[in-house]
Write a structure and sequence with these properties.
Chain lengths: 137, 304
Amino acid sequence: MDSRPLRIVLAKVGLDGHDRGIKVVARALRDAGMHVIYAGLWQTPEAVARTVAEEDADWLGLSLLSGAHMTLVPRVMQVLRDNHLEEVGVMIGGIIPEADVPRLKEQGVAQVFGPGTSLDEIVAFLKQKGTGEAKAP
Amino acid sequence: MTELIERMLRHDRLALSRLLSLAARGSAGPDVAARLPAPSQPARVVAFTGSGGVGKSSLIGKMIDTARRHEATVAVLACDPQSALSGGALLGDRFRMGSRTDDGVFIRSLAAVSGHGAVADHLELMCRILEVYGFATIYLETVGAGQGDIAVRDLADVVVLLLQPETGDDLQWEKAGVLEVADVIVIHKADLPNADHVAAQVRAALELSSARAVPVVLVSAKTESGLEELWQVIQAAPLRRSPDAGARRELLRLAQDRLTDRFFQMRDDHELAKLVEAWQRGECSADQVADAVLSAVARSCPEL
């Protein structure tokens, strides 16, 4: 067997303590046959990048409900680049105002899933994107 | 591949991570194994096992810090179960181990297929890669089935079994397969009432079978009591890993998997249908029918 399931790190950065949404997403991705590495609450951008590197993840999902996304997400993207992890896809979930979505995408975020997104939509997005070409050995 | 191994030897953590993925995938495993140099120092491989919720991940988190206080580098291979239905997995061990940005620590989460001995496949090769990279200590976390998972004994130098208060009466400790896999027994959550009582029961059960001395240590990850004593006991244990036995076990498992695949592919096989009929009518013994099935499978594969 040579195909491996998608490996996805899910984390929350900063002091936001609302983890219900990210746990629901974790469960849905698991049930879709993916391997979810749940890194949990209160992570620093540096710790997240380390987890992504050590887990050889294909995707990083960040959940933010605190309103600090325009501060924290660019910082995570920068640390990922500093650690040569630019081929890892990044998706964001949580409460993100429409106006901020293009600004996050400019930072290299692949997709933003706001309130009301169905779980099927997230699963379908990941299945369609799959692993980046750079992941092939 | 050679370039990847060279980068890993220069302590490139991304290369290490990618090599572990290749090893986990199986197909590239032999290629990695053949090109891997011998480790400059043998690592001490310590397995933590015990039922779900007993505190394996939390204890490993604290034992990472203990190892770092002793200036030992640590790698962790943490196994969680993989769904037999979807193939998916929620790997939550590292969450309980605390987040750190320390080059002396490396944590990888792995999904374990059920029926493969409570650990992920290809763990032996992954341990070798981490050993070659230079980690002094490797912690393995099993999925936590607890009873009778002895595969981990071949992979680890020291098997630490975690027990906790309120897990049954003293007859639990007489059951085969629970205590006998352990080199060290931890009575975890020792801050809870009755921890002493469980420790006394376990010590009494161990004394009856005095084949080898198994230390019993009271530990609490919550209050951090007993961590230093556990570290010392682990360091004092002899290095007991047997890669040959591990390799044999892996070969057997690979052959079993192949046999299972072939068996289910033979759904319409005439000979197998006749065997099923004979077995249902009680015309042959279990031994006879098992031999006959093996022969039928062998005959159905021209390459055998």
